[in-house]
Amino acid sequence: MKNRRVVVTGMGLITPLGIGLEQNWEAIMECRSGIGPITKIDASDLDTKIAGEVKNFDPLEFLDRKEVKRTDPFIQYALAASQLAVEHAGIQFDGTDADRVGVLIGSGIGGLQTIEQYHSVLLERGPSKVTPFFIPMVIINLAAGQVAIRFGAKGPCMASVTACAAGTNAIGDAFRIIQRGEADVMICGGTEAVLTRLVVSGFNAMRALSTRNDDPQKASRPFDARRDGFVIAEGAGILILEEMGRALRRDARPLAEIIGYGVSGDAYHISAPSENGEGFARCIWAALHDAEISPDEIDYINAHGTSTPLNDKYETLAIKEVFGDYARRLAVSSTKSTTGHMLGAAGGVEAIIGIMAMENNILPPTTNLEFPDPECDLDYVPNRPRERSINTVLSNSFGFGGTNATLILRSYE
Predict the structure, then answer these.
(1) Which of 157, 188, 283, 304 is catalytic?
(2) Among 373, 367, 281, residue whose Cα is nearest residue 318
């Protein structure tokens, strides 16, 4: 049902850069990094001792004490970002159309902090000391479930679990649900909180994480020749999507319109992207086809840009494949250079950053791009923001297992 247009009317951010839209945009414009030494776990014996931690987050500002005790941080971040997005949208959920309001929130890993905590409890104190809230604290769909309970949303309630593409898949699938007429409002995005010893150890075993421990703010350096892996981070990015007519009837101000969504699978490797980024390219083509626009109508790409050797090289190749000569004139940046990589939350956060770029007509920079990789030779908006008229944004997210997702957003007209 392509005639049902879908707009974004509210956004909420919880990231290493701050709480809320203003703090995050200010940090990006100042090229201020949210990455620092790990403080939430003992990292003394880990190869990687740096991360993008959410700082100054008080869950009691968004949840009561009982809820805090009964929820994993990934759920707390989802509830907080959803609350901020609902307030930003100025939307009231009074129950009159509850079955037309849905929730779709993605996460790559879910409640691993709680799993580690209660595994220790089980071993040290026995099964009787495991909380009855353990299962609802750890399963990924309970982020969406808790948000639905909070706002009385009785429409579709689901989770996307597609590694680092989860947030983008959640937004894209929510877009489809509204397009098809199965809901009129969707609360959607991604959340992640897995700064644990087990996760950092696992990524270190894969040699996926940066070990630039002596200079954490420069550790995330997408497209730079001296990049040595991604920097793990936590947070949430939640959007309110509405069918356009409903939004206008309540005098909401559309922030952007979602016009395209593409997905693809690599069928190649459990963690490495397919050769030359051909899966990435097919995903971008699918989004452009869905949006019914030509490649030269894209003004800015918020790249997946993880700061890993293969992703950055192959994403660059995919952009060249799709955009041809226009790729040289196209602005591409990775805001993971300041936020770190929030895994399943990244797509939600980066879609919001793309919308803020359109609102302000400013290209967010790729920071720490000091030694350009000859194989990464596009305009990555290095080291400082740049003013430019931005009407259409493309946002990429690619995950382990070869799962790829791309969104296209346009300024509302």
Answers:
(1) 304
(2) 281
Active-site residue (options: 157, 188, 283, 341): 341
Using only C-alpha atoms, the chain has a radius of gyration, in whole angstroms, of 20
Is residue 292 classed as helix, strand or coil in its secondary structure?
coil
Q: Is 324 exposed, middle or buried (0-12, 13-18, 19+ CB in 10 A)?
A: exposed
Q: Where are the domains of the chain?
A: 9-249, 260-410
Active site residue 376: no
From 164, 188, 283, 376, the catalytic residue = 164
Sequence-ordered list of residues with C-beta below 8 angstroms from that of 216, at least 6 positions apart, any chain: 33, 35, 36, 37, 50, 231
Closest CA to 41 of 194, 215, 213, 219: 194
The reply to whether 260-410 shares the fold of 9-249 is yes
Mean pLDDT computed over every residue of the chain: 97
The domain made up of 9-249 has a fold known as: Peroxisomal Thiolase; Chain A, domain 1 (3.40.47)
Q: What is the pTM of this model?
A: 0.98
Burial of 2 (0-12, 13-18, 19+ CB in 10 A): exposed
CATH architecture assigned to 260-410:
3-Layer(aba) Sandwich (3.40)
pLDDT of residue 2: 60
Question: What token pair was written down for 134?
Answer: 């353990």
Count of residues for the chain? Answer: 413
Residues 371-395 pLDDT 10s: 999 999 999 999 999 999 999 999 9
Average pLDDT over residues 299-322: 98
Assess whether 304 carries a catalytic annotation. yes
Q: Is 164 one of the annotated active-site residues of the chain? A: yes
pLDDT in tens, 353-367: 999 999 999 999 999
- Which tokens go with 288? 């452009």
What is the C-alpha separation between 131 and 63, in angstroms, rounded? 19
